[in-house]
Amino acid sequence: MPKPLAFHCRDEAETEAAGRAIAKELPADCVVHLAGDLGAGKTFLVRAIASALGASREEISSPTFALVHEYPIPDHHPIIHIDGYRMSENPREWMEIGIPELLSSPGIKFIEWPKEGFAGFSPEAIEIRIGVNEDQSREIEVKPFRM
Q1: 126 closest CA partner among 44, 30, 36, 16
Q2: Would you say the C-alpha torsion 127, 144, 19, 17 has a positive or negative sign?
Q3: Neighbour-count burial for 48-77, b at 16+ CB within 10 Å, e otherwise
Q4: Which residues lie below 8 Å from residue 39, measured CB to CB, with a gap of 6+?
Q5: 66 to 3, 27, 35, 85: CA distances (angstroms)
């Protein structure tokens, strides 16, 4: 579990730098819950973290319509990027599409809009919370997930 981190990002360059710093702290095998309002920059931050870890920046996009994306990392396990926004609240449906297997697979798994029930599949998760200020700067907090 990484140490708690906090960043104030005034622009995309500072958010990229935060992503690189977070990438250095994430365990090679973890689940990351991403919390933040629509447009807060969840996918942008995943792109910054994943590219810092070696994923192709051009391949990283929002999983909103596909629900799940996988990004290969040279000489490592892939990064899994899940969007829970369009998923139902029914854990049975999550099982049918393989969410438990994805979350237990090796590598870093990012979940945007995690449903409350995801905690049962990933009790040792990390939470990244992104807040947007009135001036459009971002507050990014990284800490252990608390149920």
Answers
A1: 30
A2: positive
A3: bbbbbbebeeeebebbeeeeebbbebeeee
A4: 132
A5: 32, 26, 19, 11
What stretch of H or E contains 132?
strand 126-132
Model confidence, pTM? 0.88
Radius of gyration of the chain (CA): 14
Q: Which of 60, 114, 110 is nearest to 85 (CA)?
A: 114
pLDDT, tens only, 9-22? 999 999 999 999 99
Beta-sheet strand order (sheet of 108-112): 5-9, 138-144, 126-132, 30-35, 108-112, 79-83, 68-71
